[in-house]
Amino acid sequence: MNTNLHPLHHSRELTGQAISDVGQECDAFEISLIESLLRRGHAPGKAARIVIAARVERQALKQWSY
Amino acid sequence: MPMAGADPLDKLLLLIHSLQSGQPVPGELAEWFSTAALRTLGGRAPSLDHALGLTRHGTHTLHCRIKRREVRRRLLVALDLAGSHAALAEEIKRFRSRKWPCWRYFDEPPGRATPIECQLFHAFHVAGGEVPESLRSIRRIEAELVDSDAHDDAE
To answer: Is the pTM value of this prediction over 0.90?
Structure first.
């Protein structure tokens, strides 16, 4: 595995907190992304913000891109 | 969720999320947008996107930026699935030569795709096949996602 992972990567509580901060149900990719970000030291709130931004971006790409 | 110093694109995306979800728009975002709109209306800025700070990335359009960001996020998750930078580089090479030629016209990865192939499919799909595979590129992508609040670079 990657050797530079943050020691907090085992915490399910942090993942749960980030999912809660998103405020809506997360899909499998979003949960994986949250875990990847938390492993690298992101705070749950910041991980949630990135996931929310990613969700809106994916919506734009899916509905409006060609 | 404090937004001080956040990338204007991230602010815009969170504003859209608030509007779509029916959640109250954070005061900081409301202030950011209304000030920019008033500055534009008052003739202090040439356009709303300029006033919002959305034109700071040179020739890169917002569309190009969000595509690049999606590729990076997919590769970050794929990196954890692969286990190392070198393993991901090999996976990308293998995917490019063996899978992408057959799957490139699909809208979604086929059901038989492995988890890492699913992430690579989405990365290739968004990037039109132009996904970096060098170790240096993969390390840079990971570092940028970790270090940058905007989760993309300022090219």
So the answer is: no
Number of structural domains chain B divides into: 2
Lowest average pLDDT, out of A23-27, B88-92, B101-105, goes to A23-27
Domain hosting B70: range is: 62-147
| ipTM rounded to 2 decimals | 0.83
Q: What are all long-range contacts of B116-123, with beta carbons under 8 Å and residues at least 24 apart?
A: B116/B78, B116/B81, B116/B82, B116/B91, B119/A29, B119/B74, B119/B75, B119/B77, B119/B78, B119/B81, B120/B74, B120/B78, B120/B91, B120/B92, B120/B95, B121/B95, B122/A29, B122/B70, B122/B74, B123/B70, B123/B71, B123/B74, B123/B75, B123/B78
B34 & B75 share domain = no
Q: Test A32 with B80 for CB contact under 8 angstroms.
A: yes
To test the contact with chain A by mutation, choose from B80, B139, B152 the residue with the greatest count of A C-beta atoms within 10 A, namely B80
